[in-house]
Write a structure and sequence with these properties.
- The chain is of the alpha+beta class.
- It folds into 3 domains: 286 residues, no CATH class; 112 residues, no CATH class; 58 residues, Orthogonal Bundle (Arc Repressor Mutant, subunit A).
- 39% of the residues lie in helices and 18% in strands.
- The protein is built from 15 helices and 17 strands.
- Strand 14 and strand 15 form a beta hairpin.
- Helix 8 packs across helix 10.
- It starts with 5 loop residues before the first strand and ends with a helix.
- Bound molecules: adenosine-5'-diphosphate (ADP), zinc ion and magnesium ion.
- The site of zinc ion has 8 residues, from loops.
């Protein structure tokens, strides 16, 4: 029997806390770490006799998300009650959307969107007691500040094929949402939360396997690791001739363990029914116009503009457009100075990103956009060599400041014309007679040795082209 190869099939469900001024169905302000139970009212505490009112700003944000993801926006959508009991849900039901959501269809990058709907967040349970097992002295306390926070739930089609693709795509989604300004999109603080639905199937087959759902992962790294672990677990089961059980799972990032939270619930378990206390959401042309106007330039449009108007190459344009913070920094630097776009883009996406590390936002670094622009301009004017400019950038990253002043203070200015450079080149040739001999004989390969020597002597301040020219001149080539 030959071993069957399996491929992962993954669909994502993302909960996004919307950064509206007030909660989804009441006038309480959203909470940012205030003392427990200080941002509550009878509505979000679920007291009897209260009535919810849908938050117009949340609907506006929902429409913006729908537009950005290319969804069909429903002219009429309704809220449902999703009934279940949990201590963080005082009403005994969550107001959500069910079969008539605000948005359907759409796409972001290589993943299709199934739907986007609005709902309210649950309160927060805080477990106290250190035993890790249930003890009479242990307790769970409920902080209702989060209860009722507006959420947009974004559900993808099962188009994702690997753990890496899942986390890459989520970064894309996070960038888009951040640009829309509809959410803080902070995973650690829970304003962006992701569940992954995972199954595997023999490569080449179309039918979907039985899926499990990995709940609430709160970092890109954990999402990647969690999905990998679950895919391996499922493949192991199938290889052993077993069957995957449909259930909801928890991935513990510290131990790598996957544990069952509950067997999979079905829609009918929730006894969905239309929320009788809310009118349907009717989308007017004015609401659509307002959402359309509020849309910022989205990454795809920005990428095209960087290419067409600034003449950036494809790779730079894509990087700067899809990492909005890099694009913003780049544009700010570009506006502050008569620097050329492509060299500036290279310095931002290569040298600066490398020095700041992976996901860092350069706006939070000590390098002012105008300072980087000035440095790149100095390189363009050949007042500073590439190598010396990298040293200046090291200094800017560490301490900030003005590149021109650093160049002067550290003596990093390009070694001036031939007058200054010629003796250094001559000394280099003298120090390497065998190399000089080969060069004289027409073998130019070892010229790097001479250039390297001159660079060392001048601390990288010599222009490589000029050094080569002088070598030829002095050897009479
Ligand atoms: P449920 O009814 O269990 O909530 P849905 O059909 O609503 O399932 O899908 C929820 C999510 O699971 C979606 O992102 C969807 O793409 C994904 N999904 C559905 N079936 C599978 C499967 N067999 N394997 C992987 N993902 C799946
Ligand atoms: Zn309230
Ligand atoms: Mg579902």
């Amino acid at each position: 029997m030959s071993a069957v190869e399996y491929e992962p099939v993954i669909g994502l469900e993302i909960h996004v806390q919307l950064s509206t001024r007030t909660k989804m169905f009441c006038g309480c302000a959203l909470s940012f770490g205030e003392p427990p139970n200080t941002r509550t009212c009878p509505v979000c505490l679920g007291l009897p006799g209260t009535l919810p009112v849908a938050n117009a700003e949340a609907i506006h944000y929902g429409l913006m998300i729908g537009m950005a993801l290319g969804c069909d926006l429903a002219p009429r959508s309704i809220f449902h009650r999703k009934n279940y009991f949990y201590p963080d849900l005082p009403k005994g039901y969550q107001i959500s959307q069910y079969d008539e959501p605000l948005c359907r269809g759409g796409r972001l990058g290589d993943v299709r969107i199934h739907r986007v709907h609005l709902e309210e967040d649950a309160a927060k349970l805080v477990h106290v007691g250190a035993s890790g097992r249930l003890h009479a002295s242990d307790a769970s306390i409920v902080d209702f500040n989060r209860g009722g926070t507006p959420l947009a739930e974004i559900v993808t089609e099962p188009d994702v094929r690997s753990a890496e693709q899942a986390s890459e795509w989520l970064k894309l989604l996070r960038t888009t949402l951040r640009q829309l300004g509809v959410s803080d999109v902070n995973m650690e603080e829970g304003s962006l939360r992701c569940d992954a639905n995972i199954s595997v199937r023999p490569v080449g087959t179309k039918e979907l396997g039985t899926k499990t759902e990995l709940k609430n992962m709160n970092s890109f790294r954990f999402i990647e690791r969690g999905i990998k672990a679950e895919v391996e677990r499922q493949i192991g089961i199938l290889r052993d001739g077993g069957q995957v059980v449909q259930e909801t799972l928890h991935y513990d990032p510290t131990t790598g363990a996957i544990t069952s939270l509950r067997s999979k619930e079905e829609a009918h378990d929730y006894r969905y029914f239309p929320e009788p206390d809310l009118t349907p959401v009717s989308i007017t042309q004015a609401m659509l116009d307002r959402a359309r106007e509020a849309l910022p330039e989205l990454p795809a449009a920005r990428e095209a503009r960087f290419k067409d108007e600034l003449g950036l190459n494809g790779e730079s344009a894509r990087l700067l457009a899809w990492r909005a913070e890099l694009g913003d920094y780049f544009e700010s630097a570009l506006s502050s100075n008569g620097v050329e776009a492509q060299p500036l883009a290279n310095w931002v996406t290569n040298e600066l990103v490398q020095r700041l590390g992976g996901d860092a936002d350069p706006a939070e670094s000590k390098v002012e956009p105008s300072a980087l622009a000035k440095l790149v301009a100095l390189v363009g004017e050949r007042k500073v060599t590439q190598g010396a400019a990298k040293q200046v950038l090291d200094k800017l990253v560490a301490e900030g400041g003005d590149p021109q002043a650093i160049v002067e203070a550290e003596g990093l200015g390009a070694v001036g014309g031939a007058d200054e450079l010629a003796p250094v080149v001559a000394a280099a040739l003298e120090a390497n007679p065998d190399i000089a001999e080969r060069l004289r004989g027409g073998d130019m390969k070892p010229i790097g040795v001479i250039v390297g020597h001159v660079m060392r002597e001048t601390k990288g301040r010599a222009d490589g082209g000029e050094v080569t020219r002088l070598v030829r001149e002095q050897l009479g080539l």
